[in-house]
Amino acid sequence: MREFIKAGALFAAHHPLYEKIAKSFYANTELMQAMLGEDRPNMVSLYEELLLDGIASGELAPDLDASYIAECIYQLTTSLATGYGEESEADISESIVEKSEKLIALLEKGIAHS
């Protein structure tokens, strides 16, 4: 999942026009369903599969709502790539890798003090 998050965010940052097109497409559920025969992005389905595998292996909590968490991960990862202006490709990549690691830490550890 770590590599999917980084790769998706890096692609979105380096190709903002494609990201805008994809977001518009995914926001239009009827169009997406008519074209793809499904009602959500493939990345959400992939995240959900990974989460379900983690639940089955015992790595993740058995009561986890994989569908909801997959959608949250998708929304969070797509937002990692926003807000960049004139930064260099290297700076953007470095920033996104750093933000991705923070997101992964949040997913792994949560926010509760233990």
Note poorly predicted spans.
none
Percentage of residues in helical conformation: over 70%
How many strand elements? 0
Q: How far apart lie the N and C ends?
A: 24 Å
What does the overall shape look like?
flat
Radius of gyration: 15 Å
Order of helices and strands: HHHHHH
* Main pleated-sheet profile: none
Q: Note the quaternary state here.
A: single chain
Mean pLDDT: 80
Count of alpha and pi helical runs: 6
Q: Please report which band the strand proportion falls in: under 5%, 5-15%, 15-25%, 25-35%, 35-45% or over 45%.
A: under 5%
Structural class: mainly alpha
Descriptive account of the structure:
The protein has 114 residues and is an all-alpha fold. It has 6 helices and no strands. α1 packs across α2, α1 packs parallel to α5 and α1 packs antiparallel against α6. It is flat, with a radius of gyration of 15 Å. The two termini are 24 Å apart.
Question: Helices, strands, pairings?
Answer:
Blueprint: H1 2-14, H2 16-27, H3 29-36, H4 42-57, H5 66-79, H6 89-109
